[in-house]
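The pair is set out directly below:
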Amino acid sequence: MKEGLYILMDNHTNHGDSAVQSSALPHAAVTPSPRKKKKLLHIEFLRILCIWLVMFTHSATSGFSLYIPMQHSRWFPLYILVPFWVKISVPIFFMISGALLLGKDEPISVVFKKRIWRFSQVLVTFSFISYVAVYRNLNLVNFATLTYTSTLATAYYFLYLYLAFLLMLPIWRALTRSMTNTLYLYLIGLNLFFVGFIPVFSFLIFKGSAEMNYFLNPLLAVSEPSFYFITGYWIEHVLPESWLTRKNLIRLGLAAMAGTLIAATMTWYHGYIAGGITEENSQRFYDSFLFLNTAFVFCCARYWFTHHTVSERTRKILTTLGSLSFGVMLFEEITRNITRPILDWVLLKYSPHTPFIDAVIWICIAFALGLVITYVVKKLPYFRTLI
């Protein structure tokens, strides 16, 4: 089994080569075969969840932001909470990556040969597939221009961000290994203050007419993807095992729910001030306390799979779905478009009173189709080693 290339293609092990390790997950819920390294089942579960949530995010007002066209529905208070949990998809994507890659020791040359080169192939190959599917021609100049200047599928901006992360990987590895637990907590505190509380206080005071000077934000030095790369490494390798308890998870869950309620209330209030919630003004507070939700889900997954025994059958299902999940993301725009008529002509027609459930079913069908396509494509020699 080849060693992992990146977040959703990484056949991860139990961090044997990490510079900073946790307590070696003594009760990890894995059942490895004698000749294979252990799989981290919480990582497998999280990457499956991550891709499903990415797809649901792209359902837009049909599911993800259903609260916008359903502002007078009795379910509006529940609909408006959905985005703040679905949005954890991107941070989980980055946290898994940080957890898997920042602890490894590799020369810069190996990073380029083993990771950047192969990931560049993924970006170019699947951008070309998307280009042909959309434009239905083989104009290589136009394809190269679009690939260089934009993204050819909604989810592919992940690929560009991830390629940038790989270029910075040797530097991030050196920086994270020199950080203490106190510095990680300080970084998290900065995020909660400047991304969470400042936008809320600013809008309550100025009603959207004024904002804090953009250049005052210290987190400009650490982008949102980088923040989650670092904190993913922290939770997986540095966070003391004694902190990961049921009581602390309950506290973190309550903090996440409080942050969600604050952000959702501010989203509603912003719409009220603006004369109605729209796609443009609805996104202002999506990221406010997103770290709390993301950390809660990540820590819960790690805690559960560490303290519970998983059957061999469940292990195989998780590892199989996990190995296909990256391909599902690469084909997700195609599978959503193919299955969209199921939502419009069947689900919404015969169960119009449950649009959110209809959207969930639609994305599940699109996800399943993506699994089938990826399984078939991976039978081809080139793609078997690529995805």
User: Anything to note?
Assistant: The chain has a mean pLDDT of 88. The two ends are 13 Å apart (CA to CA). The longest helix spans residues 246-274.
